[in-house]
Every structure is written in structure tokens, then in C-alpha cells.
Amino acid sequence: MADSKRYKEILLQEDAVLSDVIASQAELRTAVNAKDWTNLMKVVSDINLEMDKFNHLDDERENFLKAEKGGMAGSADFDRETNELLAKVRGKLVRCRTENKALGDFINITRNFVQKIIETALPQSRTKVYGKGGGFVQNQPDSVVVNTLF
Description:
Radius of gyration: 23 Å
Low-confidence stretches: none
Helix content: over 70%
Number of helices: 3
Strand order of the largest sheet: 1-2
Largest sheet: 2 strands, antiparallel
Oligomer: single chain
Structural class: mainly alpha
Order of helices and strands: HHHEE
Strand content: under 5%
Mean pLDDT: 81
Shape: elongated
Number of strands: 2
């Protein structure tokens, strides 16, 4: 029973950390939409710290299972409440991963869009650059600073 109780405590801690991550991801999305770059950097730092906590807790949970269940990392021996808590944690983890993927896709699309605009507006007159494999390497635009005071 003590084993199940410790496992449940770890799962509750993971659940709390993932709840914080989900709240931070919502704040991150708001910061991106509002173009609040200082808050964005703060939120990204907070999310990284929270995910470090989660990774530590998950390692602790895995090590606990290996020690208590003889190397078998399964949850079949726990009660229904503990298994439901594990399912809840896994669901939140999937939600976090989905949000991260959506944000990553948004950043890649935006970066490519801005890069194409810069290439069109400020064409680079350079010769073609070839990579090690012999294929054409896309020229990256020079750093451009736009003065927004005008």
C-alpha cells in the first residue's frame, strides 16, 4: 500500500507540473499574438524550468516502477484511481506536446514567410552556393535592422 501511495504522490506532482505548463503555454500563445517579446522570453524560461521538473519527476517515477515491480514499467498492479491518474497525466502530456508542435509549426511558417519577403525586397546578388553533397544551398539574408521610429 505504501508503494501505491508513493507512486500516486509522484503522479500528483507530475499532474500539478503539467497543469502549470499548460497554463504557461496559454500565456505563451497570448504573448506571441500580442508580440510581447519580453514576456515571451520569460514564459519560455518558465516552461523550460517546469519541464525540467517534470523530467526529474518522470525519471523518479520510472525508477520507482523498476525498483518496485522488478524492472517491469507497467501500471497493471495499481488500483483504479491510480491508473486513472496515470491516464490523466498522459493526456496532459499529449496536450502539451500538441501545443508545442502547433507553436513550432507557427514559428516555422512565419519565419519562412518573412524570409521570402526579405529575399524579394532585398535581393542578394551573390553567386550560387553549393553544399557538401553538391546541392544548392539557400542563401540566408544578411541581418536587417528596421527602424520603426519613422
